[in-house]
Amino acid sequence: MSVTAAMQAGAANPILWILAIPLGAAGFLAVLPGWRLATWLNVAVSGATFLSSLVLFQHRPEPTRLLFIDDFNVYLVALTAFVGFTTSIFSAAYISRESRAKHLSDMHLRFYHAMYQAFLFTMLLALVANNIGVMWVAIEAATLTTVLMVSLYRTREAIEAAWKYFILCSVGIGLALFGTTLVYLAAQPVMGDGADAMAWTLLITKAAGFHPDLLNLAFVFLLVGYGTKVGLAPLHAWLPDAHAEGPTPISAVLSGLLLNVALYALLRFKMLISTNPETLAPGPLMIMMGLSSLFLSGFMLYRRGDIKRLFAYSSIEHMGVITFAFGLGGAVANFAGLMHMTMHSLTKSAIFFAVGIITQNAGTKRIADIRGLTASHPVLGWGFVIAVLAIAGLPPMGVFMSEFLVVTSAFSKQPLLALPLVVGLLLAFGALVSRLQGMAFGPPPPPNRRAHGGGNWLGTMMATVPLWLHMSLVVIAGLWLPAPLVAWFEAVAKLLG
Amino acid sequence: MLQQFSYDLAHLIGATVLMAGFGMLYQRRLFAVLNTFAFQALALAAAAAWQAHVQNAPHLYATAAIALIFKAIAVPIALHWLVERLGIHRTVETALSIGWTMIVGVALVALAIMLVLPVTAKAAALTRESLSIAMSVVLLGMLMMITRRNAVTQVVGFMALENGLILAAVSAKGMPLVVEISIAFSVLVAMTVFGIFFFRIRERFDSLDLHFLETYRGDRQ
């Protein structure tokens, strides 16, 4: 194939666009002086990535050895690009306030924007990678970019959080690599040497013939490895610190997107293991880790004094519920898991948008010092109330729908497991609602000297519009899911087995 | 005959990597840990080069070169320089005594062998033993990260773990992307450790002892 033909093929392949836009932008933003232009460019580029991800629904390219798109990852690519886009809008408002308060220097902001796009690139690459080795490299690079961003503020706490994140997640991805090597070793006798034995679309067709013991061993390493990145208990220790100490837009994409991507990697391997009839069922292990995450975070939520840590623990809880649902398996539970992934992503990032502005207005992250939000900032405060009620699982929001589906399928399949699930969900519900009351209602406190809110109407609007946009999607999804979306979720649920 | 020789040499080099893993646990002085790590990386480079020769896979020479230049030379020299420059304590602080660490290490190696050998009964002989050695090196690296408190020894422990992973990857016949994986690891370590942490931790705490992590639980009211 000549160079021009290769370039034409590249131009026609939307996957390459989705990867090239954020990668090129990361390089450009790294050398672009002046943060004002950079924030806008960040928004524009994220928007372009989102638009090109929509092309995938119209035109799905043929899988290659390196990249592929199927029913499962196309929706996660679109979700990731969408939340990446809305977060970049929020980030523009957040950064301009931080910069006015002189919390970050120009150099840091240039670095921040370059890393934001690099982070989006690594997540999208992990989602579309057909080669399990490339997927691993992408998730490793995502760890690197986020470690650097968590340490951005250079406070003592930020450095400690980033160090903890680096140590724990590096060991985690190290173990995931060992698992990946074991999968290759299991595949090699059947598929032969080389790249074929790492291409997921080829592996899934032949996995029934792989050595089952090797696959079992591999899955344990992959579960522990990628599970660390999902934040499953007891491997969750890095997650609350990393969420609390980094810039809030990063907390939003960490919770809303990165945890999903790590879980996606795990699910791809689960699909592979499940096709082999002689392997251990991966379900019970996932159910166990899911339930322990749910319980641990359910109890931990009650003792949180820091607003960002509170919602970080809530992310552990929801990842636990999702892992539980996929562990249970079957059409309904998988459907619920997929829907919960989407709903949690939208709701949790919306919460962090609100939390970012709230902590800037209040000048503190202490829950005890944040009061009367609905009185002092009605648009923001009520958006926050709706988002927290949604994440706590109150109807009619989408999170309630998916949690309800998880519980009903647990009742029909394993009634004994449904009991701890319901108890855990109620625990978390109680904690979140009791915390919300103090923050949302009552008289607002006198202004704090460390507060750095204010700004023009455009800034305020850019911070609240993404919040309300996400919440309206979540509410609509709770009341009415469009029929094509349902059909499509069902198809993916079947794919997951 | 020749094949038997290539197996034996591969196992000898693998066992040298493993012994260096034990050697690191045994050291009481920081510089000795760094020297032992450099030796382990050297052995890893030899293992990768030998596999490149045996499997007739020239790209593994690149992995060997990365292990030799980055891990066996650049990282130990840079860490030496940092330890001297920052005036870090030159003795290794242990959370578990050296004797107990060695006993746990032996148990971990036994576990790795018992786990891997039955599972890989049908795989090629070379892969079987190399895989159990590699898994032992990984577990010893984790043990080092857990039982040694200092930030420098933690990083060295992580890189020892990574040596085990690379050893597994080069022993898996025909595995693609090994070079990319070793580059990805090197970039992770180099950027995180040298770019950010050592300078910043120094800025803030005047110490590289991670003890301070224990006084900080983030969220006490």
Automatic annotation (TrEMBL), chain A:
Highest taxon, organism lineage: Bacteria
Entry's Gene Ontology molecular function annotations: NADH dehydrogenase (ubiquinone) activity; oxidoreductase activity
Keyword Plastid: no
Pfam families registered for this protein in UniProt: Proton_antipo_M
Domain NADH:quinone oxidoreductase/Mrp antiporter transmembrane: 129-423
InterPro entries, per database record: ComplexI-like_HydComp, NADH_UbQ_OxRdtase, ND/Mrp_TM
Keyword entries, A-Z: Cell membrane, Membrane, Oxidoreductase, Transmembrane, Transmembrane helix
GO biological process: ATP synthesis coupled electron transport
Transmembrane segments: 15-32, 39-57, 72-95, 107-128, 134-153, 165-187, 217-239, 251-273, 285-303, 310-332, 338-358, 379-397, 417-436, 457-481
Keyword Oxidoreductase: yes
Subcellular location per the Swiss-Prot or TrEMBL entry: Cell membrane; Membrane
Cellular compartments per GO CC: plasma membrane
Membrane topology: Multi-pass membrane protein
The protein, known as: Hydrogenase 4 subunit F
Native organism: Magnetospirillum moscoviense
UniProtKB/TrEMBL annotation, chain B:
Keyword Cell membrane belongs to the record: yes
Subcellular compartments: Cell membrane
Keyword terms: Cell membrane, Membrane, Transmembrane, Transmembrane helix
Keyword check for Metal-binding: no
InterPro entries attached to this UniProt entry: HyfE-like (IPR038730)
Membrane topology, record value: Multi-pass membrane protein
This protein's GO CC annotations: plasma membrane
TM spans (from-to): 6-26, 33-53, 59-83, 95-117, 123-144, 151-171, 177-199
Main location (coarse class): membrane
Coiled coil, from the record: none
Protein name: Hydrogenase-4 component E
Species for this entry: Magnetospirillum moscoviense
Lineage of source species: Bacteria, Pseudomonadati, Pseudomonadota, Alphaproteobacteria, Rhodospirillales
